[in-house]
Design a protein that fits this description.
By secondary structure, the protein is α/β, with parallel strands linked by helices. The chain is built from 6 helices and 5 strands. The protein has a 5-stranded parallel beta sheet, with helices on both faces. Strand 4, helix 6 and strand 5 form a beta-alpha-beta unit. Helix 1 crosses helix 3 and helix 5 crosses helix 6. The relative contact order is 0.17. Keywords: Signal.
Length: 212
């Protein structure tokens, strides 16, 4: 049990308590996503909370993703559903990564893209509901429910971005899918400023305990 009281474990325990609280605070005070949000008394508070979360995580040696503003979309690519319309584990992993990025960029719209309906529900609808249940406000989430391929993910997400006046994207998908997805998004003229995959997402990817 000595590992439990080591400096590294204690730092990580602290972060495990403080970072989620900071991220939840960022979500709670985030302003509605829009192309030109109106300034208000809390206009920059959410970003300050995200910066605080980054500072706390730095104490434990955990790198959180960069923070982006309302001009940058967080684009999450879907994955085939089970016949009953529920998620496969791979899609859940992508959404965990998306959730962290959404918490760290509380003013960025989140676009979930994926059609391929199963049991009357599309990938994007399942993804949107998963994110809403975990604290991402509904007004931040935009669903693209027609895409049936990675090419269409890029094309249709680009259309959503154009309609919202968004000019760049953080792309989230699986590691073995990222290269193809990135090529497709760049081909339709979407500047991708960052990427995240489930295996590079922080927090849950860095457990603490014996041997760590």
């Amino acid at each position: 049990m000595d590992w439990l009281f080591s400096p590294t474990s204690l730092r990580r325990c602290t972060v495990a308590l403080l970072v989620p609280a900071a991220l939840i605070g960022a979500v709670a005070i985030a302003s509605p996503a829009s192309a030109a949000p109106a300034p208000g008394p809390f206009a920059d508070v959410a970003d300050r909370v995200a910066v605080t979360a980054n500072s706390v995580a730095g104490i434990a040696g955990i790198d959180l993703p960069d923070t982006y503003g309302p001009e940058t979309a967080i684009v999450v690519l879907g994955y085939g559903l089970l016949p009953d319309g529920t998620m496969r584990a791979e899609l859940g992993n992508r959404l965990h990564a998306a959730l962290i990025q959404a918490f760290m960029s509380p003013s960025s719209p989140v676009i979930v893209t994926g059609g391929n309906p199963r049991n009357g529900i599309t990938e994007a609808q399942v993804m949107a509901e998963w994110l809403r249940l975990r604290g991402v406000p509904a007004h931040r989430i935009f669903t693209e429910t027609k895409a049936g391929s990675t090419v269409q993910n890029a094309e249709f997400a680009a259309e959503v971005m154009a309609a919202l006046g968004l000019h760049r994207a953080v792309l989230i998908t699986s590691a073995d899918h990222m290269r193809r997805a990135l090529e497709n998004f760049l081909a339709v003229g979407v500047p991708v400023v960052a990427t995240m995959t489930p295996d590079t997402a922080p927090l849950f990817a860095k457990p603490f305990g014996a041997g760590n």
